[in-house]
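Lab meeting, item 3. Inverse folding demo.
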């Protein structure tokens, strides 16, 4: 439950406090914070720190609401971070009696840490607040079936405006299912790529062919397999858009908005022979795309640094690459509402106006991508969103503007039913 009696994990707690303090103060992205964890941490310490940081961000809304009722004036960021981490440990403790040994140990541990990480005066404040916070966390009960958005948002730690939106678009039952899903820690999935040998027994086969669940405590072996290219960390949801492409061995495929390259690698592994052109904007994610394309075997792979909306056809021509493709994948930037269980800070970064902004950009991407599809070819439009504005509505608008194009196949995967991240994909067939 906690690392209070595990001296081998002692450095994980202050590292988590430091990361949460930086998140609270500067709004740093959680993936960047976790990538920047001190290299001196052991694998166990790193795993525990990640667990604490992700847990705090996942439950930040509920913890903050409870703290706002207990603290008149917000303390320094480091002290707030101490309270948040202790608050998450109390959430993990569930309905344990606030006077129980576990709750008392959580409070004592936070106070002792505050003496070092903050100050003795702040440690006394932490002591008083955590005692009350323990009672508040233990008293929480799930909202009733007809609970309003505000109550659902507080208990499930989501922005109220987002819960209201989901209630309107998904309905009460699906919204509750989504909220519960998002608050559950995500397993780590991986795809086995090595056709010369079977996956090791300690990788548990998942419900989706080729995918496995990665167990805790095997990170050295995982790193070795990743470095060798035998394994790739990937959620099964990403496979659906590639499957919808209906790839044929030997053909030439264009992957647009390709970074960081997980789908590019899956396209190449599926093709086994042929040609793959991966295109995306220059930027920090392009390095990951280059690394993934370097792992491609048997398929000719080309990386194009280009803005799809600013003359992609011309850039392809300049590089001596085809300007029309029988198979095109367009995996657009989106709201990420289908992957909030993995990307725990998305719900706090997302703004109400982002949906309309994404939809406008997605329509522009679709128009640009359509100019690169060969006669009779197919274009798969995909998102990791479950929002109709970015999915069904985007497809409807595209077909309205291109009446000769037909929607040949579609998949809308909601996570609480699919069992993995949410996603959507549409295959458009162009006239011959």
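The presenter then showed the designed sequence:
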């Amino acid at each position: 439950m906690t690392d209070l009696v595990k001296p081998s994990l002692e450095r994980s707690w202050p590292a988590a406090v430091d990361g949460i303090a930086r998140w609270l103060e500067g709004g740093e992205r959680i993936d960047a914070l976790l990538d920047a964890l001190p290299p001196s941490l052991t694998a166990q310490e790193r795993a525990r720190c990640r667990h604490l940081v992700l847990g705090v961000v996942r439950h930040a809304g509920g913890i903050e609401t409870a703290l706002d009722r207990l603290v008149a004036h917000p303390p320094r960021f480091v002290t707030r971070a101490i309270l948040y981490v202790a608050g998450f440990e109390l959430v993990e403790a569930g309905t344990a009696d606030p006077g129980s040994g576990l709750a008392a140990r959580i409070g004592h541990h936070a106070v002792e840490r505050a003496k070092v990480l903050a100050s003795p005066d702040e440690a006394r404040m932490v002591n008083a607040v955590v005692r009350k916070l323990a009672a508040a966390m233990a008293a929480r009960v799930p909202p009733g079936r007809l609970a309003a958005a505000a109550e659902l948002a507080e208990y499930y730690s989501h922005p109220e405006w987002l819960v209201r939106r989901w209630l309107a678009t998904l309905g009460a039952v699906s919204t509750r299912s989504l909220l519960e899903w998002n608050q559950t820690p995500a397993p780590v999935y991986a795809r086995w790529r090595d056709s010369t040998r079977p996956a090791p027994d300690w990788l548990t086969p998942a419900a989706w062919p080729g995918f496995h669940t990665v167990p805790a405590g095997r990170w050295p072996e995982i790193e070795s397999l990743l470095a060798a290219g035998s394994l790739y960390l990937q959620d099964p949801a990403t496979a659906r858009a590639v499957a919808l492409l209906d790839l044929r061995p030997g053909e030439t495929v264009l992957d647009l908005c390709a970074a960081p390259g997980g789908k590019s690698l899956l396209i190449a592994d599926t093709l086994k022979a042929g040609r793959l052109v991966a295109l995306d904007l220059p930027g920090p994610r392009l390095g990951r795309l280059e690394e993934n394309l370097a792992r491609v075997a048997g398929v000719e792979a080309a990386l194009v640094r280009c803005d799809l909306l600013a003359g992609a056809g011309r850039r392809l021509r300049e590089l001596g690459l085809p300007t029309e493709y029988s198979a095109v994948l367009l995996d657009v930037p989106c709201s990420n509402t289908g992957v909030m269980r993995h990307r725990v800070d998305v719900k706090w970064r997302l703004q109400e106006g982002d949906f309309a902004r994404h939809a406008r950009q997605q329509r522009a991407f679709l128009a640009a991508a359509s100019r690169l599809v060969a006669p009779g070819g197919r274009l798969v439009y995909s998102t990791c969103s479950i929002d109709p504005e970015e999915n069904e509505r985007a497809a409807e608008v595209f077909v309205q503007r291109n009446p000769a194009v037909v929607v040949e196949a579609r998949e809308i995967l909601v996570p609480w039913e699919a069992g993995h991240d949410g996603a959507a994909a549409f295959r458009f067939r162009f006239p011959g």
